[in-house]
Design brief:
With about 500 residues, the protein is an alpha/beta fold. The protein contains 20 helices and 20 strands.
């Protein structure tokens, strides 16, 4: 079913009255007695009225909402309730409102309560919406990250950070429904930037039940008080759970999924300790990925084409790695460059059929939306370098919720490549790959990585996480240092297990 314009543009998932009352009952159970109340995106007012009913301690409340129709409906509900002199309803645009001034009007302790929009800036940009904050690289990404996927963010993340900053130094509680990933990013921001948060907790909610939304969602509850500084958050299974199922936290500049697991394995942590890479990014699978059928290849458009082997490499997708055993499906990828930015004109001389094929589908390749392809040679790809052509690799899927590392060797003398949702450690020999895989699949390695992996993330495993494990140190702990040294050398670069050299035959 198509989303309504309100849901699509405003991330508009109105909080059901039942859920609003459950949240307020939880806040009362943990001892909250607010004097001031703010709901910055109040919609129809379900949260506002649930809080006013639950907390007789509230002396003044403000409900703000950008949609004038919702403001009118919330006012109608207020009249039906017989009015309430404590409450002021106002039409307001979150992105231009000075929330510090609003909070100054309210007595402490203050409860900031609500359900912020569940939509990303990229989605709103695609709709041509103006319901966006002023453009800025507020997450401080550098270089390529700032113009690719990492610069996309949930609008609620930006909004929550503004509310965090407005509450800093005050007495009160922030209780917001949001995506799990947003809650973690906001906590990370608070802990990294010394926001005066005393305690925090995360309560899982069933977003499918309450909002018919297929996302992992939570209620984030953060207590503020001047001088507060607690760098952990308890995680609860649901709103009625009294015992936490885990504790996430912040230590050594890192956000941690399991603080206890990290403290048990932090001696194995070394930022950038191994040279993990992501697979090739091309953003045009219908053209660049093909299935071999006898001597020819079928692309994602259903076309059967004849191409030279020169720029074709056997490939595995993330799903092929998911079960811990690589599954080959006669899939190939066109790799027109050896390094990022290399001139692709040479493809015409090396492989004229491949060049003709790429030119014929140049319109699709030119339409790739990511700005990384602008002002680049025709048919450019990313995530390619000497490491791509290492003959042996240890690989893992980034999407699937399993720590399963597999050894992948060459096929018919050619290195196997991966899509950009996979990660791999390049190796020169089978012995290197098997040694590294044995270490990575050990219980000790799994316990280490579980300290960092948030399994409810869209892509739980990343190269940043994989690089944190010092394989040489792990080998020493497991009594395998002699074997590790035999494979990788006595000294070597501690930032990388291997320094692969390219397969020269590819370019000769």
């Amino acid at each position: 079913m198509a989303k309504s314009k309100a849901v699509a543009e405003y991330g508009d998932f109105q909080t059901p009255s039942g859920l609003a009352r459950l949240v307020c009952a939880l806040l009362a159970k943990i001892g909250l007695q607010p004097a001031g109340l703010l709901e910055p995106t109040c919609g129809l007012g379900n949260f506002l009225y649930a809080a006013l009913d639950e907390f007789q301690s509230i002396r003044k409340a403000v409900g703000a909402e950008i949609n004038p129709c919702y403001v009118d409906q919330a006012k109608a509900t207020l009249r039906q309730r017989g009015g309430d002199s404590r409450l002021r309803l106002a039409e307001a645009d979150f992105f231009v409102t000075d929330w510090k001034d609003i909070l100054d009007e309210l007595p402490e302790p203050i409860l900031v309560l609500g359900n912020l929009p569940w939509v990303t800036n990229a989605h709103l940009g695609g709709l041509g919406s103006r319901n966006l904050p002023k453009k800025s690289n507020f997450q401080n990404h550098n270089g390529l990250d700032a113009i690719t996927g990492k610069s996309n963010f949930d609008i609620s993340e930006w909004m929550l950070i503004r509310l965090l900053e407005a509450m800093n130094g005050r007495q009160g509680v922030l209780a917001i429904l949001c995506k799990s990933s947003v809650a973690r990013k906001v906590l990370h921001h608070a802990w990294k930037n010394d926001i005066a948060a005393r305690t925090s907790a995360v309560y899982r909610i069933d977003a499918d039940l309450y909002f018919a939304a297929a996302v992992d969602a939570v209620l984030l509850v953060t207590h503020f008080e001047p001088g507060g500084r607690e760098l952990t958050a308890k995680v609860y299974r649901d709103l009625e759970d009294d015992r936490p199922e885990g504790i996430l936290g912040y230590e050594d500049g890192m956000l941690l999924a399991d603080i206890a697991a990290y403290q048990g394995g932090k001696h194995l942590c070394r930022e950038g300790a191994a040279g993990w890479r992501s697979g090739i990014k091309h953003d045009c699978s219908k053209v660049m990925e093909l299935l071999r059928e006898g001597p020819r290849y079928r692309n994602g458009l259903g076309e059967l084409v004849e191409l030279e082997d020169f720029h074709l490499y056997p490939m595995l997708k993330s799903s092929d790695l998911a079960n811990g055993t690589p599954r080959r499906k006669n899939r190939y990828m066109i790799v027109p460059q050896r390094t990022v930015g290399e001139d692709t004109a040479a493809v015409q001389g090396r492989a004229p059929k491949t060049w003709t094929y790429l030119k014929a589908h140049g319109d699709l390749l030119a339409k790739r939306s990511s700005s990384i392809y602008r002002n680049r040679p025709a048919f450019s790809i990313f995530g390619v370098g000497d490491y791509t052509f290492a003959p042996w690799k240890v690989a893992i899927s980034g999407f699937y919720k399993r720590l399963a590392f597999v050894v992948v060797g060459p096929v018919s003398g050619k290195a196997v490549v991966f899509d950009d949702t996979s990660y791999f450690l390049p190796c020169q020999t089978k012995e290197q790959a098997e040694c590294a895989a044995t270490l990575l699949n050990s219980p000790e390695a799994r316990a280490f990585y579980n300290a960092f992996v948030f399994w409810d993330s869209k892509r739980p495993i990343t190269a940043d996480i994989l690089r944190r494990l010092d394989l040489r140190q792990l080998a020493a702990e497991l009594g395998s240092e002699e074997q590790f040294t035999a494979c990788f050398g006595t000294h070597g670069d501690r930032r990388s297990c291997v320094v692969p050299s390219p397969q020269r035959e590819f370019w000769t």
